[in-house]
Amino acid sequence: MKNKLISMAACCLAACTMLFQACDDGLDLEYKGNLDLNLLGIKQAAEIMNQKECNLVTALRKAGPGDVEDATDFTYQLNLALYQNKQASQAATVDLVVAADSLTKAISMVGTSSLYDVYTNAELLPSDSYTLSATSMTLPVGSALSEAVQLTVKSQNLIDLAQSAKVNKCYVLPLRIQNSNSYAINGKTSTIMFIFNVTYLDEEAYVPDTDGVPDDHIIDDNMKLMFHDEFNGVGTPDANVWKFEEGFMRNEELQWYCDRNAEMAGDGTLVITGKSERVKNPNYVAGSSDWKLNREYAEYTSSSIITKNFRFRYGTMIVRAKIPTETGAWPAIWTTGTSDDSWCWEWPLGGEIDLLEYYLVGGKPSIHANACWGSDKRWSATWDSYNRPLEEFVSKDSEWTKKYHIWRMDWDETSIRLYLDDELMNEIELSKTNNGTGGLSDWWRGSWRNPFKDAGNDGENFGQQIFLNLALGGNGGTPVVEQFPLYYYIDYVRVYQKAE
């Protein structure tokens, strides 16, 4: 078990979700002209304090497939300080105690105000799950800061408790300073509430299909396996099969695509990881009107992989995956039409099929199943779209977001049918998927063609190539830094076509 030392000033960026809830027990401490500047407080509470609220919320869960390691312990440094870091003119000593009464009061207020929702089903942090290096704090004469008291929380203890109970847990450690021997204590920053939300991980929901299928596998209607990747290796996906996108790509999304965020985990899964990390844009041009150039940095990274040589037209495509559903996540399984001379098939003239997209519609997280083709305007698509709110799936299965699901496309000469767990989501009739002009001359190959049906496309080795990617931001919403990293698990990709 590693030990993670967390700078309290950087907690909200490094590992914790910062929420602030009523740590002053409801006192009215608004400035009325008589504020005593010689008040003692916990420095870190003052740093995170927002009006009456100074809570620190951390999310924990057991490591799942593709995670590098189990959760590390968290270590926090606490210091005694005067208001605005004034130097002490006299020594001050206070007791540092576990304020169980503050937690009891907060729990009793659940339901009276949304401020107290964070304490729903809360329990006092078990004493064997943390250590304090001292139970008192002293601010010396002439100093602005006391020596640090170290709080260490044993993350694995909390995870084990949640796993044993098979339910989510909320543990709270309220720490308070009291009994000052000199200066008065600032009630507004005297208490800091450490809240640990521990998510129970249903390990059955994370089991990948490590058996795979043989290369000559056949399914119904004499459909033979033509392409597959079971991701049963370790490290970077097969470079003979997949290629990576690099940099800013589309939709003014926030992530920088790179090749280090997609790895086979050794358990039969490909894991695409969305990370909150800053990378410099090597193409940056100050003042450019192009969004790919005018961002000096990307604040997030992720991966997008594309089939390198394989393209197909007609058949059945099956992908088993578990998607991230945190705010800001935009996972996708999709295809676009291209050929050996791909410049003739600029988007959307080659057609696009979205077996899966997950993003917000009207502020609601939704599952999408779409297809599009060219209109009479260049780079503008005609869409056949379908979406369903995530809550409809979760209402039927509260564990839905923790499980793998099957996304399938059946494509023949008349239609494209898109399924989720064998439920038909969208059916696109190919009689209506003819491209417009695309605002281009008639000689441009994509103009007037039907990218999903036109037999004339065969001569150029035309077909749909496969994309697997995790976008961040854009239609996915504004990412919540404290929820990162995000994990997108792909168990396998299989394409079947009629056997000769």
Describe the model.
By secondary structure, this protein is mainly beta. The protein has helices at 11-14, 43-48, 100-108, 155-165, 390-396; strands spanning 3-6, 39-42, 55-61, 73-78, 80-82, 92-98, 122-124, 130-132, 136-139, 149-153, 169-178, 184-185, 191-199, 218-219, 223-229, 234-235, 242-244, 255-257, 262-265, 270-280, 297-302, 304-307, 315-322, 329-338, 352-361, 364-374, 381-384, 387-389, 405-411, 415-420, 423-429, 463-472, 486-498. It is 7% helix and 40% strand. Strands 14, 15, 16, 18, 19, 20, 21, 23, 29, 30, 31 and 33 form a twelve-stranded mixed β-sheet that branches. Strands 17, 22, 24, 25, 26, 27, 28 and 32 form an eight-stranded antiparallel β-sheet that branches. A hairpin with a 3-residue loop joins strand 14 (218-219) and strand 15. It starts with a strand and ends with a strand. Residues 1-36 have low confidence and may be disordered.
Helix and strand content put the structural class at: mainly beta
**Which consecutive residue ranges, at least 5 long each, have pLDDT under 50?**
1-36
Provide the helix percentage.
under 10%
Count every helix, treating DSSP H or I runs of 4 or more residues as helices: 5
The proportion of strand residues reads: 35-45%
In whole angstroms, the N-to-C terminal distance is 56 Å
The rough form would be described as elongated
The biggest beta sheet, please? 12 strands, mixed
Number of strands: 33
The radius of gyration computed from the alpha-carbon positions, rounded to a whole number of angstroms, is 28 Å
Mean pLDDT, all residues:
86
